[in-house]
Specification:
about 325 residues; alpha+beta; Cyclophilin; about 25% strand; six-stranded antiparallel beta sheet
Amino acid sequence: MSGLRVDRPGLSTTVQDRGRAGHQRYGVPVSGALDPLALRLANALVGNAPCTAALEILALGPTLTVEADSVRLALVGSEVGLKIDGTDIPAGRSATASRGARIAIGGFTDAASCILAIEGGFALVPCMGSLSTYARGGFGGFEGRALKAGDLLPLARAAATPGPERRAPPIDYGRGPIRVVLGPQETWFEPASIDRFFAEPYMITAEADRMGMRLEGAKLDHARGFNIVSDGIAHGHIQVPGTGQPIVLLADRQTVGGYPKIGAVIGADLPRLGRMRPGDTIRFVRIEVAAAEAARRSQEAAFATLLKAIGPVIVVPTTEQLLRTNLIDGVVSA
């Protein structure tokens, strides 16, 4: 069987695709990649369909050994890149590794998550239509859990497709405050609390994980208590429990919740939010639904332009490589 052997698993490395849609009414979370833009771009670089399952890596990457004839891979989402047998491969480009090669991804501080895509993806059985790992429930991905040392991830392809490597410009995630649409329970908060929420900075705490991002900052006061009849939870909803400290719900969020929600992060800002790390400072700004929809359309247009800019990797030999190479093709007598 062709596969990738896990020598060191990193901090938290899981198989993720776009998520397990259509099952929330049964209490099944969606899961999926925290940064879906990185997932789509990494897959494009290795020639996969946009939603093909890849490895999501949090903070500290794994070390893998190739147990296949060859694999084409691409890392997107971190500026650090990876190493193949000690050779640096920048992020945002594909590379091919041969049997026995060692792939190493170290720690990175520029983002909370990155994506490693493999040409052809993984030979794993989908669970409810998805390969996304939901570790709390123990299903999906590879045995329903994060990778550990000794695992052999089965590959769908035994060898990489011949052809040039490809590179892409970096993704523009945007800057400035995270945009929020107010509601659906904004009337459960004192008006002054809503003003504070948009005026004051919050810090992402160490309790942040794939389920939710706990924040610390200005306390939000409830006007009508903090228990509601449980209703549906969307990606990016911002719950406020009795502590008055907001929780932004992410990919592994629960399907329903009983705390009032002051607002929801707009879809265009979710990839950037999913890349933020504990200790980062976050600010919010209010926008209306029409502006949120326009922002998402603009993001999709920009991403389509980025995909069109993908091109072949042009290798420029170093001076050392030139000196090791015989560049004389022949000798002509005078």
